Each structure stands twice: as structure tokens, then as C-alpha cells.
Amino acid sequence: METFRAVLVVDAEKFSAHRDAELPEVHLEIRRVLAAACEESGLGEVWAGVRFMESTGDGVLAVLPHEAVPALIEPFPRCLQRALAASAPGLRARGLRLRLRVALHVGLVDDERPDAPGISTAAIDVCRLLDSEPLRDALERSDPEVTFAAFVLSAELFTAYVAGGRSGLRESQFTEVQVRVKQFARPAYLYVPTPSGGGEPRAIDDVAEPFPPPAGRTSISGVTISGDGSQNAFGNTVGGDLRQERP
Fold it and tell me: Is it the case that residue 66 has pLDDT exceeding 80?
């Protein structure tokens, strides 16, 4: 049965820049820092009991109880930034790196259906938020030794929880952005727990197309969804135009 849920998806910046043998180690570190951040945020038991969690290769998509939303907005972003900063020296010593883009949305999701868990508009939309240019820019244009995580909230969550005074964050800590990914075009709200400058500017020929390309297909847990594409990989299935690395 569909229930109102929080949908969280994370993606590692330049994940495929690592050597093939290093990819599993980096992915496991993503899961470790997520668990650590949830534990520090008071969501340890919630994270351990998540019914639907899917590897996206370079990240994770998870469906959590709606009651977890306030903590996922604050203090989870700050806790994840700290966990990543603490992990960075050890990773760097092994020639690895990890910075995360994070998107959070809410909607109706069936996370118990055995043959097609997690398939919903909310799950697809949160992946489009994750793939947005403003979120990518937030990391690319920051100091990689200072800023380790960037977040984007859907407008629904921002309105209800931040503007509505139901979180520890103020509206002024967010930047309204326009997300345009294929046929998806909506406002969203960017939050960087530890902002910085010093990243490399985007090349002129690397600017997003002004008009969305044709729709594609998205597949989650082996079930293919036709319609507007999403540039993400779920498990061993791929939908749309998979972007493995962005210079």
C-alpha cells in the first residue's frame, strides 16, 4: 500500500574517476558515512530499519518514514558534512575522494510491494532533483577540502518545513534554484552546510541545454517505467542517458 514517505537519494561526485577495483570501497564508504550521519542525527534506528534501499552504483536511494523529514532537513546535512570531512584524510591517503550531492523529496511510495518496491513519481522526481545543474555546481564551484556535501530540497519540503518554521534552518540559508532535467522543470532549494569558494568554474561549452531533450525510460528494481527519463542507475538496471562522470 502506498504511504507518504521521505525519499532520499545521494550521489558521489566524480565516482567513476576512481579505478575499477576502488569503486566498491568508495560505495561502502558512502553507506558508512550515511549511517554515521543518521546516527548522529537521531535517525540511527530509522536508517537501520529502512525497508527500501537501492544502490545506484555511485550512490544510494532510500525510502524513509515521513516522520524522519525534520531530522533529515536539520541536523542530518551538517552531520553528513562532518562525517565526510572526518573520512577525507583516510580516503586521501589511499588516493580516494568522496563528496556527496543529496536530494530530499516526499511523496506516496509503496516500499513493501515485493515485486516492484519503491516505484513512484516521488522516487523519479527526487532523482531529477539530484541530477540538477545547480546542485552539481554547488560542489564544483566549492573548495574540495572544505565543502563535502550539498543538498537540494523539493519545493514541497521547503515550504512545509523551512518556510513553515518546522526545522532548525532559516529560509535565508537556502538558495532558490530552477531545476530543469529533461521534461522536469520545477523550483527547488539549495543548501550547503559548509559553503566555500575555490572550485573550478564551469566551461562555457558545459552549460546545460536551454531546452530538455526527448524523454527516456527509467528502471527501478528491474521494473521499467516509460515516460520522462531520469539519468540514474538503480541496481543493475539503467534508465535514460546514464552520466557516469562529469569533468
Answer: yes
Residue 136: inside a domain: yes
Residue 247 lies inside a defined structural domain of this protein: no
What is the identity of the amino acid at 158? F
Query: For residue 142, what is its C-alpha cell?
Result: 566549492
Q: Could you tell me which residues come within 8 angstroms of residue 11 by beta carbon, excluding any fewer than 6 positions away? A: 56, 58, 59, 100, 101, 102, 130, 131
Question: Could you give phi then psi for residue 11, rounded to 5 degrees?
Answer: -145, 130
Q: Is the pTM of this model over 0.90?
A: no
CATH number of 72's domain: 3.30.70.1230
Question: Tell me, what DSSP letter sits at residue 97?
Answer: -
DSSP 176-221: EEEEEETTEEEEEEEE-SS----PPPPPGGGSPPSS-----EEEET
